[in-house]
Design the sequence.
């Protein structure tokens, strides 16, 4: 266990100040999360800021692999041995409802303390159950269309041509880009459900309806998402990619003209210094002919949750509220140092979000993403997103090979029912 912030005590702290509001708490907060260069580092920074006004509060930020966090949390909650659980835990947004619904009463509601109106609505929706809001919204996976302006210009397209387009138009542009430059338009790993998620949520739909029941066969957004990916494959505008490394290499090596994914990919793109000034960002394309289709969506993201069993529950909630719900400067710092786009809407008014980025031709890239963040349609991720992803990816290839879409949707539904029964 990594004790990152030492207890600050001694004669330097006067008795009167100890009793003040800023130092009303005295305890150790244990936090489980993953990724030492992102979540762990950011939480350590948050703890350091909080300790300046709460010197008797210490933090143990424990770095596990993501799978280990999930397994340890699942085991502890299922067995009832909550004394082995942390005070705060990071949960991926797609899994939030699974924990909230499977283990009622295990997480502390925060809506009596936190003003959730200041956050992106879609983040609040995913942590709401039976009218109560659990969790502290953290990073967003707001999506964007990153593209190589040099390739697009060579093919005869301007920045304006990439704004507000549909997926059908994206495919047509892709055909011309390959014809005139020799580069594929983009890359999609058809064995990964990420693109399906992006497209579905952009239309305000998910694998389940408002009652939590499967919504597959008659789901127009899902149907359009699958058909669109099949169209791209058949139009031969996709660079083949299987697995994460192949996917990333497709755009970092210059083989493709664009990448459509979450904002967290920005650091990977910018790591290619030789490509500085050649990249731009636009909103993602919208689904053709689907009611409610938009140019905003999400892929990934996580949030912080307080365990009801925590001996320092109130202190943990106060800490999250003070830093993650109020401290705009904190969000400027983690954006600059870690590339983290938070869910607090007020953060976008800060200087870091409004700074022009020469790598992207002087565009205010972070400002764009923060604006799109507020436009992401809220959806109910339910408790079986991963199982549905498996069913979708298992059947998507058959659509590309010519199987009728209605038969593909029925096959997905049948497999999903088997997996979640």
Sequence:
């Amino acid at each position: 266990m990594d004790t990152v912030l030492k207890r600050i005590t001694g004669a330097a702290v006067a008795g009167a100040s100890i009793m003040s509001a800023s130092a009303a708490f005295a305890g150790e907060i244990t936090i489980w999360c993953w990724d030492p260069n992102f979540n762990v580092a950011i939480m350590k920074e948050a703890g350091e800021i909080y300790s300046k006004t709460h010197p008797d509060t210490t933090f143990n930020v424990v770095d596990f692999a993501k799978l280990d966090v999930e397994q340890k949390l699942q085991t502890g909650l299922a067995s009832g041995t909550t004394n082995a659980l942390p005070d705060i835990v990071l949960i991926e947004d797609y899994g939030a409802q699974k924990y909230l619904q499977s283990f009622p009463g295990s997480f502390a509601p925060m809506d009596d303390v936190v003003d959730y109106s200041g956050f992106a609505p879609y983040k609040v929706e995913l942590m709401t159950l039976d009218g109560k809001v659990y969790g502290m919204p953290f990073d967003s996976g707001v999506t964007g269309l990153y593209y190589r302006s040099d390739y697009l210009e060579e093919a005869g397209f301007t920045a304006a041509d990439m704004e507000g387009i549909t997926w059908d138009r994206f495919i047509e542009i892709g055909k011309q880009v390959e014809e005139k430059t020799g580069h594929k338009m983009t890359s999609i790993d058809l064995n990964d459900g990420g693109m399906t998620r992006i497209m579905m949520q952009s239309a305000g739909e998910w694998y389940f309806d408002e009652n939590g029941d499967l919504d597959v066969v008659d789901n127009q957004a899902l149907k359009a998402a699958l058909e669109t990916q099949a169209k791209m494959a058949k139009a031969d505008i996709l660079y083949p990619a299987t697995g994460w490394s192949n996917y990333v290499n497709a755009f970092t090596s210059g083989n493709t003209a664009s990448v459509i994914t979450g904002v967290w990919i920005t650091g990977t793109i910018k790591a290619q210094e030789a490509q500085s000034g050649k990249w731009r960002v636009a909103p993602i394309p919208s689904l053709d002919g689907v009611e409610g289709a938009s140019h905003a969506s999400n892929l990934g993201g996580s949030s912080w949750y307080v365990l009801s069993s925590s001996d320092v529950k109130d202190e943990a909630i106060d800490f999250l509220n003070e830093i993650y719900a109020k401290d705009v400067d904190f969000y400027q710092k983690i954006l600059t140092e870690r590339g983290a786009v938070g869910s607090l809407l007020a953060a976008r008014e800060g200087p870091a979000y409004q700074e022009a980025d020469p790598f992207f031709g002087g565009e205010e890239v972070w400002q764009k993403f923060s604006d799109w963040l507020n436009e992401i349609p809220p959806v109910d991720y339910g408790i079986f997103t991963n199982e549905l992803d498996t069913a979708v990816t298992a059947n998507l290839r058959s659509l590309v090979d010519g199987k009728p879409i209605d038969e593909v949707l029925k096959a997905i539904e049948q497999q999903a029912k088997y997996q979640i029964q």
